[in-house]
Amino acid sequence: MGNMGESKYGHLICTDLKQNIELPRYRKGGQPVGEGELSGARRHMEHVIWLDSEVVPGAFYAECVWIWPWGKPSGEGMPPHTHPFDEVIAYFGTNLDDPYDLGGEVELWLEDEQFFLTKSFMAFIPAGMEHCPLRHSRVERPIFHFTMGRGKKYR
Questions:
Q1: How many CB atoms sit inside 10 A of residue 76's CB?
Q2: Which end of the chain, N or C, is less packed with Cβ atoms under 10 Å?
Q3: Using CB atoms within 10 A of its CB, is residue 45 exposed (0-12), middle (13-18) or buried (19+)?
Q4: What Å distances lie between residue 49 and 25, 41, 53, 56, 100, CA to CA?
Q5: What is the CATH number of the domain that holds 124?
Q6: φ and ψ at residue 125, rounded to 5 degrees
Q7: pLDDT band for position 37 (50/70/90)?
Q8: Is residue 138, in this structure, part of any structural domain at all?
Q9: Is 58 contained in some domain?
Q10: Sign of the C-alpha dihedral computed for residues 58, 47, 109 and 95 taken in this order
Q11: Nearest CA to 83 among 149, 136, 135, 137?
């Protein structure tokens, strides 16, 4: 996973994408995590780093994804679900002149409330709260997506 040689704390740094990630049934479909743009396929999303307690013992779950302005967005997006842990969902635009400009639109549902977000954002999802669908309804420029949860593994 990129343990930075023989250093004292290098084992805490992850530089490679975890392979063969076990995803819940609702996240399966399409190409597996780790296949896509970085392997030459030019798909809509590309995972860059995945962190959990299997990658770094004791770590909590986090994942980083690029959303590209090419390819076809996933139609239904992430379906509604809950987690036994708090989660943060974040999206950041890449407009260097206006970092608040998302460069697209993300549709996010929290319980029965729908949001259309066009600014860079972070959303806190309390444990047990139903959230999603989550869809990338418009992507004009690359968007960086980050999510993390206080669980040791994505569930």
A1: 11
A2: C
A3: buried
A4: 21, 18, 13, 12, 23
A5: 2.60.120.10
A6: -115, 105
A7: very low
A8: yes
A9: yes
A10: positive
A11: 149
**Closest by Cα among 140, 101, 145, 103 to 123:** 145
Q: What percent of the chain has pLDDT over 70?
A: 80
Q: Is residue 5 part of a domain?
A: no
17: containing domain: 10-149
Mean pLDDT of the chain: 85
Domain count, the chain: 1
Q: Which two tokens stand for residue 97?
A: 């002149």
Contacts of 130 by beta carbon, 8 Å cutoff, 6+ apart: 80, 81, 82, 111
Per-residue tokens: 72: 């076809």
Environment class of 66 (CB within 10 Å of its CB; exposed 0-12, middle 13-18, buried 19+): middle
Read off the tokens for 95: 């407009």
28 in any annotated domain: yes
Question: Taking the model in full, what pTM does it have?
Answer: 0.84
- Does the pLDDT of residue 28 top 60, yes or no? no
